[in-house]
Design a protein that fits this description.
The protein has about 190 residues and is mainly alpha-helical. The longest helix is centred in the C-terminal third of the chain and has 33 residues.
Length: about 190
């Protein structure tokens, strides 16, 4: 990953994973709704985490020989805060909730779980945890941007603007984490 085209590929795969995650999230929201769990938040984390982890895992597998564990770490880490929120609601415990806040906490969990994947393979893997937090925070900022900054536009045009801004989150996540992953691979593989 020492050359810019690979960094570009990481950003591209992360963006595609983010877009796939968005579609998986919508699909899972529909499925959960059909089985009477329409108020749950788990589909958000599971869909986005699985989409991003699956596509990023392709490059991780090529470079480090492990991809499936990357997918699982991403899906489980991003799902965790949403699951906690759903379980708390089920237990009638009122937890504060924001979508962006849950994604940020999920970014920490993803970083921690992916660090466990990277640690035996690359030197200095600990930097991945803060990189993941910042990357997922940047991605989550698109929700805040849509909700608080961009004027509401009704209809199809408004929906396209909203989705377009959300999809930029995948580019920001990929750019930040890609630079850090490139640095980790330059420092040296343990394999």
């Amino acid at each position: 990953m020492n050359d810019p085209p690979v960094l570009g590929r990481w950003v591209y795969l992360t963006f595609l994973g983010w877009a796939l995650g968005f579609l998986l999230m919508l699909l899972l929201i529909g499925v959960f709704g059909m089985i009477g769990l329409g108020e749950t938040q788990v589909p958000i984390g599971l869909g986005m985490g699985a989409g991003v982890g699956l596509l990023q895992g392709r490059l991780i597998r090529e470079r480090l020989g492990t991809g499936r564990s990357w997918l699982y770490a991403c899906a489980a880490g991003l799902t965790a805060p949403f699951l906690v929120r759903d379980l708390a609601k089920l237990a009638d415990i009122d937890l504060p909730y924001t979508l962006a806040g849950s994604v940020i906490v999920g970014g920490f969990m993803v970083g921690l779980l992916q660090w466990r994947v990277l640690r035996p393979l690359v030197s200095g893997a600990g930097i991945w945890i803060p990189a993941s937090i910042v990357g997922w925070t940047l991605a989550a900022s698109t929700v805040v941007l849509n909700d608080r900054v961009i004027p509401k536009t009704p209809g199809l045009v408004g929906a396209l603007i909203y989705v377009g801004v959300i999809l930029v989150g995948g580019v920001m996540l990929g750019a930040l984490t890609g630079v850090v992953l490139q640095r980790l691979l330059r420092v040296g593989n343990k394999i």
